[in-house]
Amino acid sequence: MKSKLKSWRDFHHRINLVYHGIIAVSLIPFALVFLDIDSSEDAVSQLEGQTEIIVIIILLVTVATSCYRVWKNVKVQYAAIDSNLDIKKRLVPYFNIQIKRYMQLELGAIVSLVGLWLTTNYVFAVAYLLVLVQFSLLRPSQDKVIRDLQLDKADREKLRADEL
Questions:
Q1: Which residue from 13, 23, 37, 116 could staple onto 43, CB 3.0 to 4.6 Å apart?
Q2: What is the pLDDT of residue 2?
Q3: pLDDT band at 3, cuts 50/70/90?
Q4: What is the largest CA-CA distance in the chain?
Q5: What's the domain count of the chain?
Q6: Which of 20, 61, 30 is nearest to 128 (CA)?
Q7: What confidence score (pLDDT) does residue 1 get?
Q8: Lowest-pLDDT range, 1-15, 27-41, 91-105, 140-154?
Q9: Contact, 125 vs 34, CB < 8 A?
Q10: CA-to-CA distance for 46 and 60, rounded, in angstroms?
Q11: What whole-number distance in Å separates Cα of residue 46 and Cα of residue 8?
Q12: CB 134 within 8 A of CB 69
């Protein structure tokens, strides 16, 4: 993201566009797969026996690891953003950190989607819903940016007044 931010609204629009776009990448295919499996009385796993169990375990561990990595060291990443910079310049690395977090969660969502498609096991539907809950915790908002970057009073007022 270039640092040509004009206002908080501009930043918020950009990050929201990416946030919702990333969620939509897996949400639409997930809905189609889920509805196909749910409406079909003869939906069966594409895997058999021990192979299915091993694949389920590997995919669930992958989803859990992906979700864990979203929360690991995030405070260190935020602290690495120089607090002496202007608020506008701090939003650029913040944007990049958030996009990486969204992509990491999207990996978990896609793995859940593949798991549901391969095994028709509803545990992957639950895993996908848990990923969506985490997405909701990362929803971009002004208050979240203020908390994450630990902005001082002057910067908070600038952000709220839309004066970047």
A1: 37
A2: 53
A3: low
A4: 62
A5: 1
A6: 30
A7: 54
A8: 1-15
A9: yes
A10: 17
A11: 48
A12: no
Domain assignment of residue 143, yes or no: yes
Domain of 37, in residue numbers: 8-160
The answer as to whether 2 is a domain residue is: no
Q: How far is CA 146 from the centre of its chain?
A: 19
Q: Evaluate if residue 68 carries a pLDDT over 70.
A: yes
How far, in Å, CA of 111 to CA of 92, rounded?
29
By the 8 A CB rule, do 112 and 38 touch?
A: no
Residue the block writes with tokens 């539907």: 125
Rounded CA separation 144/57 (Å): 34
Please compute the mean of the pLDDT values over residues 145-155 and round it to a whole number: 91
Q: Is residue 3 part of a domain?
A: no
pTM beyond 0.85: the answer is: yes
Question: Which helix or strand (DSSP H or E) is residue 152 part of?
Answer: none
Residue 144 resides in a domain: yes
